[in-house]
């Protein structure tokens, strides 16, 4: 686990005023990575770091020659059109570049005028996926979500016996992972209506979102060589927000016995900025497992994970209907929770993923599974909030009701870390809108 | 569906004698594609076609300039270090190149001496994966396998209600797909022993193979744009053999409710040569669904699929123990079946995969699921052959017994098409060996 250093000092300020505003997602202590170009241009995509309301164009910065040595080498990797090589470079490279970027962006930094020329307003850029995602894996690590959804499918026995013993996961579809702001069409598929004798082919009638976080793999592991838990975080580059859109009617009909497939693979959205594990150091929390519950087997347990395996990320889900947009109203907040409630840590997820020898590669994406907290208002999916579609929720602002998502509904995930004595670290937003079925 | 043409004429012969031998896997009517270099060299990998006991090095052939025009363009694509671009080029390009290769390899072809210089003995080459596999999907389309395995997990209700209504699938792990000849270590993982109160961390005690075929995606489809069944085969480049190695103790503990994960993702082996759909034209068979069983919904039904959606590929599984190798004995054949028994066709699999809008990309790999025929000796996994590990099978040659795979066991899959009035089309072999746990 990385230690606190001067880049976490909450008193540190940038010469860029928008980075110092209270409540800013991207102060100088954050420095999340993404891939950008000027909106609507045909420029080459390149790496960038968010700072205040600007992005620092790393390809332009690299040309200035103000960052040299090992940090300069890391900058060259981070400036490419995908971050895979930078992710592969490992924690020392990540930290070296973080410190160098902090130095050029801090108040009193010597190269301010030169570096200013490498800024572009966030409003003027478009993103693409930060890495070429070789494989995408989705975990299932909220016990509250597992119980809530389990009740819909298996009322007598909502939690499967394995849940408390291992971080369950399934392979997802890498090709349909899209960047925030990409809308998608309501999917068609096969569903079995209650009481019917034969399934129907339909446009999804129970469309849902899933509030998740994602994490990106840094250095990979060779096939047949598991990553021990104590080393797992050295293989994790950083985190983002992730919406694992779900067609519940299709999913529940198809998923026995081999798991979700078409119910999930039509679209998965991620936020454009990857917040590094370095930036999250002030927000690590103990991994807490109640004494009366199964304790992890030895390969899923070690002191560092127990002491600080968790991350306290505040999370919020907004639903913005066509009415909200027409009337100029803010999206209705329909859920609010924290990532700290997860039953397994991201290090445990990565260690479990490799325990049988599965090889991870730089730039691979893992989802944490839906994040639902212990109370009803903390549920990370509308199937939970509406109790399986039986109790509609009411949207603030318009008073509309929802059991599942309607065409024109946009879902906006937000995440941020805040506590006394630390600078706020924001994740920005992950947005996507449901278009009518084709 | 492609029609028969002169390249399927069983009387056609090559100037290469080994291509004309009775029982050869790679006569001039086959021409399967792979990616090779000289064994043990550090040459660049490049595309190749198998012919007799040789491979035709397509990069060397392209330099000769004997194939020009549209076929020459396709040859340039097929000569690259991965076949993705050639796969993306589509059926017309595939067929044009097939015809041109047939012309230069046939008896009396004008460029024989030049083309001979582009041959390398198969014994002298090594392969890598024929494409960069973006995503790997595994289907579950043998009703006999589903019933056999279902009995182990759910004795009362072996076949899930969805099986006869849609081709079930799950996403597999692309990073651990390896080429035939790659050995792997017995995986560790978590299992729940019968009657135990807590799971154990162990080296797999119920290691299995799965006899499957794979098919490669040619041109992809855009996200949100399903491929109709009638067009599905235009998106399929060709087929190979596939062994979906399975750790049954880990798999059965982990897979409820999200499906197989670590039980499968430690290794998946494929044969090196992709037999094109063009080469398989003489072996297409009707898609037969008994009248008293559910008939496919309209989007999974069309006349071409009914008339010739199936493929009659003969399949064999060999198990070669250390004793077989020490004594110089041939592998014991432990199963023999045909792909024609599958409950769903590859066109139905591809159409179903895209029905919700999931985008497929050139070079993606799909597995058909374990191929088990209607009788006991036709089972495509050892968990079926040994009835869940309760009835050991006896290996021909050595008389050894097996319930599951032991260290040192190599599994060799073979496939071929044969019928009166057509040239034999072989798939070669897919081999892998179990190494001891690390």
Automatic annotation (TrEMBL), chains A, B:
Q: Which domain of life is it from?
A: Bacteria
Q: One Pfam family name from the record?
A: FAA_hydrolase_N
Q: Where is the Fumarylacetoacetase N-terminal domain?
A: 29-130
Q: Which residues form the Fumarylacetoacetase-like C-terminal domain?
A: 137-431
Tell me its EC number(s), please: 3.7.1.2
Q: Metal-binding among the record's keywords? A: yes
What enzyme class is recorded for this protein? Answer: hydrolase
Q: Keywords in alphabetical order, please.
A: Calcium, Hydrolase, Magnesium, Metal-binding, Phenylalanine catabolism, Tyrosine catabolism
Its pathway, per UniProt, is:
Amino-acid degradation; L-phenylalanine degradation; acetoacetate and fumarate from L-phenylalanine: step 6/6
Query: GO molecular-function annotation terms?
Result: fumarylacetoacetase activity
Q: Does the keyword DNA-binding apply?
A: no
Question: What cofactor(s) does the depicted protein rely on?
Answer: Ca(2+); Mg(2+)
Q: What is this protein called?
A: fumarylacetoacetase
Source organism phylogeny? Bacteria, Pseudomonadati, Pseudomonadota, Betaproteobacteria, Burkholderiales
């Amino acid at each position: 686990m990385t230690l606190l250093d001067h880049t976490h000092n909450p008193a540190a300020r940038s010469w860029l005023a928008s980075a110092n505003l209270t409540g800013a997602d991207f102060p100088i202590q954050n420095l999340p990575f993404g891939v950008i170009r000027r909106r609507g241009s045909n420029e080459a995509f390149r790496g960038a770091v968010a700072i205040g309301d600007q992005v620092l164009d790393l390809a332009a910065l690299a040309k200035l020659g103000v960052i040299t040595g090992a940090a300069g080498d890391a900058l060259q990797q981070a400036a490419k059109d995908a971050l895979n090589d930078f992710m592969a470079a490992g924690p020392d490279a990540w930290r070296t570049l973080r410190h160098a970027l902090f130095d050029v962006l801090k108040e009193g930094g010597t190269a301010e005028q030169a570096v200013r020329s490498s800024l572009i307003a966030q409003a003027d850029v478009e993103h693409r996926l930060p890495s070429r995602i070789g494989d995408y894996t989705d975990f299932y690590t909220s016990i509250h979500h597992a119980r809530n959804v389990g009740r819909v499918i298996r009322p007598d026995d909502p939690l499967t016996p394995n849940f408390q013993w291992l971080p369950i996961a399934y392979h997802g579809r890498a090709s349909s992972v899209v960047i925030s702001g990409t809308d998608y069409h309501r999917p068609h598929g096969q569903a079995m209506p209650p009481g019917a004798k034969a399934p129907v082919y339909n446009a999804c009638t129970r469309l849902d979102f899933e509030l998740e976080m994602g994490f990106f793999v840094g250095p990979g592991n060779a096939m047949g060589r598991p990553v021990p838990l104590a080393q797992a975080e050295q293989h994790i580059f950083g985190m983002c927000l992730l919406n694992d859109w779900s067609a519940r009617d299709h999913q529940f009909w198809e998923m026995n016995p081999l798991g979700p497939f078409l119910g999930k693979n039509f679209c998965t959205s991620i936020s454009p900025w990857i917040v590094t594990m370095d930036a999250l150091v002030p927000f690590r929390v103990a991994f807490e497992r109640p004494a009366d519950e199964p304790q992890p087997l030895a390969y899923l347990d070690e002191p560092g994970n127990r002491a600080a395996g968790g991350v306290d990320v505040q999370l919020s889900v907004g639903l913005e209907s066509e009415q909200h947009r027409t009337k100029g109203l803010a999206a209705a907040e329909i859920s609010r929770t924290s990532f700290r409630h997860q039953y397994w840590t991201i290090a445990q997820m990565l260690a479990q993923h490799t325990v049988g020898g599965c090889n991870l590669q730089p730039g691979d994406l893992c989802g944490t599974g839906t994040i639902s907290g212990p109370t009803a208002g903390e549920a990370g999916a509308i199937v939970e909030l509406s109790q399986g579609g039986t109790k509609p929720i009411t949207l603030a602002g318009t008073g509309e009701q929802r059991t599942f998502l309607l065409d024109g509904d946009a879902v906006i995930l937000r995440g941020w870390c805040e506590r006394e004595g630390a600078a706020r670290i924001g994740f920005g937003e992950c947005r996507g809108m449901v278009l009518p079925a084709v």
